[in-house]
Amino acid sequence: AVGINAEYGGCQELPERYGLHKPLILPVSQQEPRVVSKSSGYSMNWILGEGTVEITKTNTGRKANDEDVSRLAKHSLFEKFNETCEAVTMSRPYLGRLYLDIKKDAKNYQVTKKKVVEVLKEGGFGGWIKKPVEQDMFTIQNKDTQ
């Protein structure tokens, strides 16, 4: 319902490289609310072709062994983004900068997020859930200085 309403509610005019994606999700026939206390406390993710499954504790976001950060954590994804920049441009332009500042500098992302937030609010779907700003106040350091 959100995807359909967002499409007709104004999300079709998004900045270049952004678009409305409709995942293939079937409607749920059971309308009972999910009881969180009965969940396992673990989640699994995998990358096609990699051959490994990562088991993560849902309450901490860390791997089940409690030693490593999940590959889906913001810090891990930001590190991979920096590595990709280095492979393509031979530099790491975001090294040492706050993740929060880099997100603020991403103009098309900010325009798109603002539009989606407006459509959600106008459609009666609620607001964007905001997290504490401290969660985005981290940097990626050179491997040599870590």
Uncertain runs: none
How far apart lie the N and C ends? 46 Å
Helical/strand content category: mainly alpha
Give the neighbour order of strands across the main sheet.
1-2
- The helix content, as a percent range, equals 25-40%
Structure annotation, total helices: 4
User: How many β-strand stretches?
Assistant: 2
The major beta sheet can be summarized as:
2 strands, antiparallel
Chain-averaged pLDDT = 80
What does this structure look like?
By secondary structure, the chain is mainly alpha-helical. The chain is 32% helix and 7% strand. It is globular and about 50 Å long. The model has no long low-confidence stretch (mean pLDDT 80).
Strand and helix map with partners:
Elements: H1 2-8, E1 42-46, E2 53-57, H2 74-89, H3 99-105, H4 107-122
Antiparallel strand pairs: 1-2
List keywords for this structure.
single chain, 146 residues, mainly alpha, two-stranded antiparallel ribbon, 4 helices
Short structural summary:
The chain is built from four helices and two strands, in the order H-E-E-H-H-H. By secondary structure, it is mainly α. It has a two-stranded antiparallel sheet.
